[in-house]
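Encode chain A's predicted structure.
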Amino acid sequence: MNDNKGMKGMRPGMLTGLAAAALLVPVQTASAQEAVTGIDAVAAYRTLGFAAQEPNFLSIQGIGGARTAPGGSLFLSVEGSDRRPGGLRELDGSLAFGAGFGDQETGLGGEIAVELTSTEPEDFADSGYLSAKVGGRVLRGLGQNYLALGAEGLAPWGDARGREVNVTLTGTHVDYFGPFANGRYYPVMVSLGYGNRQKRGTDPGLFAGIGVGLTPNISVSLASDAGQIDAGIGLRLERFTRTTFMFTAHDLAQTDGKTRFSISIGIATDRLFGKGRS
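Encoded structure for chain A:
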């Protein structure tokens, strides 16, 4: 898209998190194993049981989180929706690609991404901006918690020029429930944050969301982005373990026009620079 409406069509910074989601699942399991130290025998049994099962896919659609892509990883994501914000019936799309660095499990981790808001063939990449996020794991004695500082809308060009940078502070907590009657545990991720330009790219606002990993391939989530309610389903297919598919319904309460629906596909890899994971 080659106008300002196209720039507003996608939630800034969201595509980067969706693309990296598949790579973050193993981190959850490893962290569960680390958490065994210093807890009682019953809790240790539960934690080890959770770590032993195949990790469920976990994601939140509609808002960003505090987790970052693993160091040495690259990610790419494309998204399309049936409407623009405000309810205008017109196809909208965007594309993002970037890289992760560092390791927030042991210190600081971060990611930087290029987000393109002009995706039509005749003006591809004519407008866009940069996004960045840096954060680490905090309050280790209270479980798996992350805190990250982000900036969306850096160095804009083309029709994105003139947009204000949205600075965000986000906290994310990952936990799990179980075992249930089927013997499985279900991971839960909760994120809460604030952005100084979160609402429509101009006003400050809070955002929050919760995601539940139902199976190794399916997650569901519910989020509020400055008062706009979004619900989503995330998929990770067995044959494409480093590819994620997200289906999201935006603005369910129709506070900013008609509800719109989007589909995004994210691809990520950490099998570069000799750092491939098993």
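The first strand starts at residue 74 and ends at 81.
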